[in-house]
User: Fold these one by one.
Assistant:
Number 1:
Amino acid sequence: MNKQSGFTLLELVIAIAIFALLGLASWRLFDGVVRTQQGAGQHERDIRALQRAVGVIERDVWQAVVDSVVLAPGHLRLQRSHWRNPLDQPRSERQAVTYQLQGGALWRESVGEGTTLAQRQKLLDDVHSLSWRVFDRQRGWHRETARGSAPLALELIVSAGRFEQVRRVLLLPEALP
């Protein structure tokens, strides 16, 4: 009795084919997980950039001086007070701040009272559209500020990156009790 044990060539080819299919399926699954993680990471970075930009605007609006908000086509200008001074540099308590959209980016420019040195900061990239409105008791919502009427709220509508439209209404100090 000469009984040989082992696998036939056909059985080996079938085993290799099954192993290759399992390997290909595992690779596709792994690739899908990596791509999803990269997409989620980019989405998270976009959300953080938008939150950071809105946070800076919100801080400036909360510290705005009464009757200093000027809204004109293409930009927002206000004067803020009580701003941080981490380096204890000599400077005034007031700061003129301007926001404007240039070249697809939202820019913030600030100048301390009594100085000519302007600090320019890019807040947000890939901005498709930006609009501002102010609310006052006499006229309601408007795209420009009027003389003699102090705005109570500021509305920001921005379209940036993958976010089609983000709307934020910020109360000005005059509106707070």
Number 2:
Amino acid sequence: MYTKVAALATLLAVAEARFGQEGLIQNLVQGLSNFGNPGQAGTLAGQTPGVLLAGANSCAKLQLADQIVAQLGNDQAVIDVAIALVAAEKNTNPFANIIPTICDDAGLPATEALRGVVPLVDPDVAGSDVENANSADSINNPFQAAGLSVADIVLANGFSNFTRQTADGATADAGAAAGGAAGGAAGGAGAGNNAGAAAPTVVCGTPTTLTQVVKAPAATAGNNNNNAGAGAAAGGLDFGLCSPEMSFEFGRAGRKPDEGTFLPADALVAQGQQDALNPNIITNRICDQLTNVCEANQAAKDACRAAQDLVAGLGTKDATTAEAFNQALGF
């Protein structure tokens, strides 16, 4: 019987081989010959190469994963192999654009046991370290997926270097709201709560660090989103509709009382985002959202990336990490 861990280990064992990965999944499906009607597993296995080729529609493998469960049953061995297919990296053509496509259909996969699993991507893709870590985690700890496409889930958890693709082949940028909940739908709800937020002010003198560029005034009364820094900044940093702050708290919902996690402090930035033990996931999310929904200017985006690099270099995972990120942006 295959397990989630065993299936993932097999996937990672061939992670360096950018071609031929479809054969691995084919063998896993073929190994389910004791399930379903005679010959069904073999027929399904024969379909796996086509859905993992570089040019295949990214939704096709999710449809096939659903089909595997529908035809072979919901035994855990079947579910685990279907999960391996959902998480599998599609082949990459090294002579073409390697930005991956990710399925943007909120109805796929339809099998509840397969939802919340996100795919591996080619390690040469920028940001792949975040996505591949998320994929590995999602095998045993799926992300929240209610009303979300896989593309929405991927974007909400820190990876944005991909193209959305629907089952009919239509494509859009990662930040487009085609999938719904993780994109533009957050904009209207968040913008109304940000009204009246005051602008940060310039610290006098010649700045030598990001911390000296701006400082934020006290939060506007009645502002539930803590967006003290939202709006146009006299010093050139305009975070638009959002505050870029990161919070660190112990015992969030679903966590142990002594387990500290990170999350964007701003509700608009955090829309659809789960808390994370890894601060780099959250700093990446914050910086991505400055572009995707916050309408921040380039100076603010550049400052956020610099603060993101600062956190990555610290290597810490506690309250001081969030403080360093926030202080680097003037909060």
